[in-house]
Structure formats: structure tokens, C-alpha cells
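Protein data sheet
==================
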Amino acid sequence: MERLTVSIVLYRADPGLLQATLRSLVVASRAADLVPDLFLIDNGGSEVALSGLVLPDDWQVHVFTGHGNVGFGHGHNLSLEGAGDYHLILNPDLELAPDALREARAFMRAQSDCGLLVPAARWDDGRVQYLCKRVPTVFDLFLRGFAPGWLRHRFEGRLARYEMRDLIGDQVLWDPPIASGCCMLFRTDVLRRLKGFDPRFFLYFEDFDLSLRVHAITRIAYVPAVKVVHHGGHAARKGLRHIGLFARSALTFFRLHGWKWY
């Protein structure tokens, strides 16, 4: 039987959102007949969220604390040594559909050339959230994150293309260039061969970088039968510190993968 491990990186985690995430993981795991090992990596400020957790008695739960805020990718990498056959990278503000893991395991069993599975996501209000992207230009990132509404409207077609709205639908999509790090199901041997996330990215763009490196050794599949609801995102709305982190990671990304301005 395949072994599933799940890693969740926490930083000042919202107790309600985290509990909802874990409740959905319990339901989805039982529906898939899986008993996952759970890695909770506390990068700081999540003591309250962790203290109130109620999890099944047969789960192995590993809590990492005291290492400080090492960043999103580096935090997930702390779980790599103990990862199973499949490893799920999961945000603490995301809920899995009850059949998400059952559908995901069935797909991975049937498609041996898939090393990374990306789910179909929606926002809280039911709108589609596009987790797959084409490789961005600097202008794309400015439009999506910081441009005023009138300018975004003028370039709506360009933003739609960046978010692959022309291809994302009800069918499996193979090899989208970039996948979001909010929910990634890996074959663990792929993740280990790539040595996980690049720790040079503290926050933002670590998933862009990892996605592009994945293509060198395996295939990525967007699988709409695997459904999630994501409550997070919107870096530009989180204040100046997050804007600074976003800009710094974007600079690192373009330095590594080549500058594309427009």
C-alpha cells in the first residue's frame, strides 16, 4: 500500500482555517483508504493553532518547532527525509474535497509518467482560481498584482492567457509550465531528485522555480477531478512587507530563469 505524507508550513496560522484544512484532510484520507503521516512545520507564531488540534489516533503527527522562520520552501524541505511514496504539499488555508485524494491516487496509479499533480481550485465564493500559469513576464506580474483596475481591464486578455484560461477546463491538461505551491501532490522520488524547493526563495516564486525544474525530469498534470477550495493568495493586499518579499523573490526568479519584460 502506498504511503502518503503531508507537509503544512505554518506562520502565525489562523486556528480556524488550519482546523478546517485538517478536517478536510481527515475526510479525504478516509475516503481514499489512506492513513497519512502529517508534518506540521511551525515557522513561528502558531502555538495557539497547534494547541487545539484534534487528529485521528492512528495518524503519525510530526511537529517541527524552534527553527525560526526559515521560509515557505525551506520549511517544507524539512519533511523530505520522512516523506512517503507520495508527498502532498498543502497550505493551511486550503480545503480538500472529500474525494480529492481518492481521485488523485487513482490518476497517479494510472499515469506513471505524472510526477506532479495539480488540482482544480476555487475561491471561497465559487469562482475558479487558476493554479496553472504560463511563464510570466515582469509586465504580467505587475498587471496581476499591482495595476489599477482600469489597466487590468484593458489587458484582461493578456491576464487570461497568463492564467491559461484558454486551456483550463474539465479535461486533464498535461504539462502546464507553472503550478501553484498551495497544493502539490508529488511522487516523492521526483521531489527528492530535485532536492525540494530552492531555499534562496524565502516566500513567493519558489513554486514557479520548482515547477520549471520538474519539467526536466517528469510531467505535470492538471487534474480537474481533484478539487480544492483555497482561501489565501493576494500578496499585494497583505502590506508593504509582503510586497517587498514578492519583489525580492521575483528578482531571484528572473535572474535564475531569464528576464522577460513584456
Q: What stands out?
A: The mean pLDDT is 96. The two ends are 48 Å apart (CA to CA).
